[in-house]
Amino acid sequence: MDTDWRPVRILIEKSSSVNPRRITLLILNEYFKKKKSLKDIINFYFKNYRLSGLDKRFIFNIVKGTVRYYLKIDFLLSFLSDKKIKDIDFAVLNILRMGIFQFMYMDKVPSYSIVNESVELAKKNVTLSSSKFVNAVLRKVSSVPNIDSFAKDKIDRLVEDKIDKISIDYSYPGWLVKYWFDWYGKEKTILICQSLNENPHIYLRFNKSKITREELSKGLGTKSIDGKPRSQNIKAIHEPISDNIETKGDNNKQFVSQDNILEDAIEVSSVQDISETDVYKKGLVSIQDISSQIAVKYFLRPRKAEKVLDVCAAPGGKTAYIAELVRDEEEVVSIDISRKRLKLLKDNLDRLNIRNIKIIEADATEPDFLDKSMDILISKGLECRTKASDKKSLKNITGYFDKILIDAPCSAFGTISKNPDVKYNKVMDDIIRLSEISYGMMVNCDKYLKVGGKLVFYTCTLSPVENQQVVGRFLKEFKGEYVVEKPNIPDRLISALNLKKNDAGTGEEVYFEIMPYYFESEAGFICSLLKNS
């Protein structure tokens, strides 16, 4: 995806009277026109418009929700409008999408407010005649007693194909539904779609070299429950701690104790502009999904004095966690192909005061990629992270590393809950291309792993072509040289996250496929391979 997105039109308003619905419309117009990264577009408008935290959350929810469900919304609109979708003015269509989303999924917004605000939005940003059309369509929507039942009835009666039903009902491209359906079956596919359509849980991993769980919990406004100390049972109270972070306040949820699987993280209900908070600036916390933490802590299992290679490391979340777990007492080399992203990695490590990482700009899709990269070990903008002596220490690097983590480039379907546009921006050709890249990286990393070492393959996607089939192909290529390490999934992990043992992998349980409904968060795939010859 193009990360250097720029909007077609730059509209800057440093004003306290900015209408959040107008900003929402501008963001949706840009996204549906260019289909660039939704995250980048949102960040641009948030940076260039003066908006309150409340306005940002309102815009964020409508934008993400409208994109998340737009296939279903357009299906409904085809029955509620006397115009075909393709004949509706582009901006008007997005106003209607926004309105229908609010009717369906934001029940706290009064119906009259949705209609009136949408009409005004059309009147001021499109034309007077278009506002009349918006008014007619949304009043028709408001007259439907139960819009969800209306949608379900239309889908059940008019859509015959089982793939198409799931595609429209949950708003996923038909090819992706079929891809999952063929691999997981109907029930699991529906559960995946449901889970990835929910807003994800957010986890702050705290830097144990700088702050304790108790200190962070106190700073975030948490308290103990049932008279138990915070270190044993931590509960977040339901109140904002700032304009940026809100703690979790569900009485049926409780944080896991220090003796449990999530001892390095706490859960918060929402985060806005975390980079502006003191806890972030001081390097006390990082946002890191639980699946990523599990990949590092329970599969890579870094130990003191080990040599670790982190491939596709930027922006550095896993690298930082590796260093934090062993308190800078191992040797970590982090590589990425993008110098821009390596700068983000360096900044992240500086913020966390992590000093033992060697950063290399390298392309792991090329054979002998580390050998070729020694001359750019000390690269522009990264001088303070590397020393001339590093070249000497890495001169003979064949079989050098005890452990290698490959955070492989992938379709990122496991992140759909936080990036809903991901489900629309890939096709099967992309899946095949990405699987070839991942396979090539695994093959090229073999040279640098010592006998007895461990190779951990991780992706943030649910995609057998990119995951299971890549691992299978690698094992076939290196027949007898690698064995799969059966995942040692602790009982406390299964208990804490309400998993079923028979749902934690394949029938042979040779990998850990993290479903979005395990954590109500990011999905992913982890496999550990041991090199025995």
Jot down its keywords.
single chain; 533 residues; alpha/beta; N-utilizing Substance Protein B Homolog, Chain A; 8-stranded mixed β-sheet; 22 helices; 44% helix; 14% strand; disordered N terminus
Describe the sheet with the most strands.
8 strands, mixed
Provide the number of structural domains: 4
CATH architecture of the largest domain: 3-Layer(aba) Sandwich
Briefly note the CATH topology name of the largest domain. Answer: Rossmann fold
CATH class wording of the largest domain: Alpha Beta
Question: What percentage of amino acids are in beta strands?
Answer: 5-15%
C-alpha-based Rg, rounded: 25 Å
Poorly predicted runs: 1-16, 222-260, 376-389, 504-508
Secondary structure: helix percent: 40-55%
Full CATH superfamily name of the largest domain: Vaccinia Virus protein VP39
Number of helices: 22
Characterise the protein shown here.
Helix content is 44%, strand content 14%. It has four domains: 20-158, N-utilizing Substance Protein B Homolog, Chain A (Orthogonal Bundle); 159-196, no CATH class; 202-287, no CATH class; 290-531, Vaccinia Virus protein VP39 (Rossmann fold, 3-Layer(aba) Sandwich). The two termini are 38 Å apart. The chain has helices spanning 20-34, 38-48, 53-68, 70-80, 90-105, 111-125, 128-143, 147-158, 162-170, 174-184, 186-196, 213-219, 278-281, 290-300, 317-326, 339-351, 369-372, 388-393, 428-445, 468-477, 491-496, 516-519, and strands at residues 202-206, 222-224, 234-236, 245-247, 265-271, 285-287, 307-311, 331-336, 357-361, 401-407, 449-459, 482-485, 512-514, 524-531. 42% of the residues are buried. The model is unreliable at 1-16, 222-260, 376-389 and 504-508 (pLDDT under 50).
